[in-house]
Specification:
This protein is of the alpha+beta class and 147 residues long. It has 6 helices and 5 strands.
Length: 147
């Protein structure tokens, strides 16, 4: 029987990782009735670039810095414009039991900055590209050595 190589062990480790090992929880969220101004304050204080919009812990949309900048450019009153009026709907998500490699492919293929993680339809976490890169670096330091 052949002894497993470091490269094979690394490949197996990456293939078996689940997104639940990477996701951030609890998730900072907002409601559909929150004003763009209040969302902007929350994004600024938390230093996030986007935030999920939830109702009864079910994801109904996402709001990003870009969305708020667009409102500003359009001359909208940020105190009178609410998340439900400008949030992005039909958000791509991943289930918490999803394997990490297909999730990374989804993030790349769809140019996603932040990906909500769900379980039985409820929001349970979120993962960003930075979170994915940090996790790979922290848990697989030999990754950089494998060509």
């Amino acid at each position: 029987m052949l002894k497993p190589t470091k490269k094979n062990q690394m490949a197996q480790k990456l293939k078996s990782m689940k997104i639940s090992e990477v996701m951030i929880r609890p998730v900072v969220c907002t409601s559909p009735d929150t004003s763009a101004h209040d969302i902007l304050e929350k994004l600024n204080s938390c230093q996030y670039s986007g935030i999920p919009v939830v109702e009864d812990n079910i994801l109904i949309g996402m709001v990003s810095e870009r969305d708020i900048l667009e409102l500003f450019i359009q001359g909208k009153n940020l105190k009178c414009t609410f998340a439900r009026d400008f949030m992005i709907q039909n958000v791509i998500t991943a289930e918490q039991d999803s394997l990490i490699l297909p999730v990374i492919k989804t993030v790349i293929d769809n140019q996603i900055l932040r990906l909500p993680i769900t379980h039985q339809g409820k929001l349970v976490g979120i993962v960003t590209r930075h979170d994915l890169l940090k996790y790979i670096l922290d848990t697989t330091p030999e990754f950089a050595l494998i060509s």
